[in-house]
């Protein structure tokens, strides 16, 4: 009987993870060769490896040299999402290549072990735990494979060539030795337990095919300016976070990674937010990815179809509306940050800014030459008809605060954006039809009210909400959306005030958490990376391009060793916070790079 050999203690930080995925789900791979997070078959499915939010007993799969700790180095293969991790040991050098090939029918996870020097003994230990680490499956042998089954889930595990494998302590272990040039490939395949095993994939063909597909996709990128590697890595990450069957883009592939270690600000981000829509479309078009932009536009049209009064701030991967929020008490959370939440009750909130985001996105799609959809203008008209009266309501605002509704300034600004884009569209194409006079009147009224009630003349800055002295990083977008020109003294004052009052070590928080009743939650959070990119963009628009580029360079420097960004960053501890990798952060990187260094307009 072989006894388990414990690896050296390794406590991963968020930045210690790399991402692999197949555009329907994704896995996080730690520096020590452990896959600690994987949801199958979709991004929002229950995890079968959940050690990220617990420990090894909640599911993980580690492959590494026997007795070794974190890898010596790791990197993605050029222009791909194929990850290589290498260990230098006294016995030799070992490489583990991780990927999830684009699937035909079932999701596959491929791990190829290769000897590069000497002879290295390798250990694989896989603990499958379905339903977010709560269910230990029944494991058996079949057709020379290991098969794990529990409820609706079945997973097949095989190696080529076959290696010595045994079960111990509800874990499947393998141990083998590889010399220089020798390889052992593992393939893990999921399918519904009531269906037969799907066809086997060749791991080496999958590797070659994945590399070719990613590189062919990257070759379409139009950006050729400074920091191109960071821009390309961000675009690859955004592609990886796209749910291929529908075109929806998840905010992140994780749930409940904390905004404060040990705190309760832990949310499920495996859904598609409308607030990202214009930024997403603009970045994809500007970078040359018209097909992805069209897919996102089409997802948007399907998701928002229906009564405009029922527009949600977020939807499921296929446009699902019900995303009930509940907690998983058996998971201790990342860094003991509880609760671990599944679903997101913020989907029920009223956020008026999303009406502006949707109408702005559809207007951008029209101006950029994407193939028109016959019902697109009807959707915009319906949204405008609703917004003409609804814009006067208080709402929960862009950041989904849970402290009650207020008249958030950014929400009103985006109501102005909706009216402005609708007016411009109708002025250019009057045959479309619509209430041009009414929309113009609304646009003027919103603008006047925001400038009167949302502006603090004493401090020369717009505020977070009417009557507030607090600020909000979303105010940095006022010049970007065209509400006021960049050289307006009120814009300059706002940018300087946000930078001063919300700045932390040069980066920007979303808003102050000192006043608990604003967001209804205790504790603090880190600097919000997309807001820091917004600051760089705003400085550039104000003519402070040298400052903007210096800030952008600092932000790019926060990327971890494989080029990924989380939602937030804590300058005090030099650690990532929040869900990871975060689409919003990578969108900010791409968008700001294009603003600072690009020479091509969207479309």
UniProtKB/TrEMBL annotation:
One of its GO terms (molecular function) is alpha,alpha-trehalase activity. Pathway: Glycan degradation; trehalose degradation; D-glucose from alpha,alpha-trehalose: step 1/1. Its EC number is 3.2.1.28. This is Trehalase. Transmembrane segments: none annotated. Residues 226-593 form the GH15-like domain. It catalyses: alpha,alpha-trehalose + H2O = alpha-D-glucose + beta-D-glucose. GO terms for biological process: trehalose catabolic process. It is an enzyme of class 3 (hydrolase). Coiled coil: none annotated. Keywords: Carbohydrate metabolism, Glycosidase, Hydrolase. Residues 12-159 form the Trehalase-like N-terminal domain. The keyword Phosphoprotein does not apply. Its cofactor is phosphate. InterPro entries: 6-hairpin_glycosidase_sf, 6hp_glycosidase-like_sf, GH15-like, Trehalase-like_N. Belongs to the glycosyl hydrolase 15 family.
């Amino acid at each position: 009987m072989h006894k388990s050999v414990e690896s050296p203690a390794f406590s991963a930080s968020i930045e210690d993870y790399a991402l692999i995925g197949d555009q329907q789900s994704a896995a996080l791979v730690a520096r020590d060769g452990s896959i600690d997070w994987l949801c199958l078959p979709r991004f929002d499915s229950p995890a079968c490896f959940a050690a990220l939010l617990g420990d090894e007993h909640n599911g993980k799969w580690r492959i590494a040299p026997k007795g070794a700790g974190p890898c010596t180095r790791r990197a993605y293969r050029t222009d791909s999402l194929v990850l290589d991790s290498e260990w230098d040991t006294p016995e030799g050098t070992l490489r583990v290549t991780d990927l999830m090939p684009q699937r035909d029918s079932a999701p596959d996870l491929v791990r190829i072990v290769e000897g590069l020097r000497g002879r290295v003994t390798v250990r694989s230990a896989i603990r499958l735990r379905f339903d977010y680490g709560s269910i230990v499956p029944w494991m058996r042998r079949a057709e020379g494979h290991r098969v794990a089954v529990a409820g609706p889930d079945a997973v097949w595990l095989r190696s080529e060539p076959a290696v010595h494998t045994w079960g111990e302590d509800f874990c499947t272990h393998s141990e083998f030795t590889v010399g220089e040039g020798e390889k052992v490939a593992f393939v893990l395949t999921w399918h519904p337990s009531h269906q037969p095993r799907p066809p086997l994939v060749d791991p080496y063909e999958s590797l070659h095919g994945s590399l070719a597909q990613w590189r062919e996709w990257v070759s379409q990128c139009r950006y050729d300016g400074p920091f191109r590697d960071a821009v390309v890595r961000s675009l690859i990450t955004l592609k990886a976070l796209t749910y291929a069957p529908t075109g929806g883009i998840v905010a992140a592939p994780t749930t409940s990674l904390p905004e404060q270690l040990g705190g309760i600000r832990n949310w499920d981000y495996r859904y598609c937010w409308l607030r990202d829509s214009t930024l997403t479309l603009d970045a994809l078009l500007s970078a040359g990815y018209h097909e992805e932009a069209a897919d996102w536009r089409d997802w948007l049209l399907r998701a928002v179809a229906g009564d405009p009064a029922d527009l949600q701030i977020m939807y499921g991967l296929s446009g699902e509306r019900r995303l009930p929020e509940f907690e998983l008490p058996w998971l201790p959370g990342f860094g003991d940050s509880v609760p671990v939440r599944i679903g997101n009750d913020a989907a029920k909130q009223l956020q008026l800014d999303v009406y502006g985001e949707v109408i702005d996105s559809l207007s951008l799609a029209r101006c950029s030459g994407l193939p028109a959809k016959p019902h697109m203008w009807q959707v915009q008209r319906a949204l405008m008809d609703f917004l003409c009266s609804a814009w006067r309501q208080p709402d929960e605002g862009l950041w989904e605060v849970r402290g009650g509704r207020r008249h958030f300034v950014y929400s009103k600004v985006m109501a102005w954006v909706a009216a402005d884009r609708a007016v411009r569209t109708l002025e250019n194409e009057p045959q479309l039809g619509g209430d041009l006079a009414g929309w113009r009147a609304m646009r003027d009224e919103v603008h006047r009210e925001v400038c009167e009630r949302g502006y603090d003349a004493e401090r020369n800055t717009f505020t977070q909400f009417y009557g507030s002295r607090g600020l909000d990083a979303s105010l940095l977008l006022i010049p970007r959306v065209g509400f006021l020109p960049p050289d307006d003294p009120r814009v300059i004052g706002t940018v300087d005030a946000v930078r001063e009052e919300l700045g932390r070590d040069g980066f920007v928080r979303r808003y102050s958490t000192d006043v608990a009743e604003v967001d209804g939650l205790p504790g603090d959070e880190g600097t919000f990376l997309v807001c820091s990119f917004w600051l760089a963009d705003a400085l550039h628009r104000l003519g402070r391009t040298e400052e903007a580029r210096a800030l952008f360079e600092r932000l790019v420097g926060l990327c971890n060793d494989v080029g990924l960004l989380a939602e937030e960053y804590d300058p005090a501890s030099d650690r990532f916070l929040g869900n990871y990798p975060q689409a919003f952060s990578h969108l900010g990187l791409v968008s700001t790079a294009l603003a600072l260094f690009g020479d091509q307009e969207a479309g």
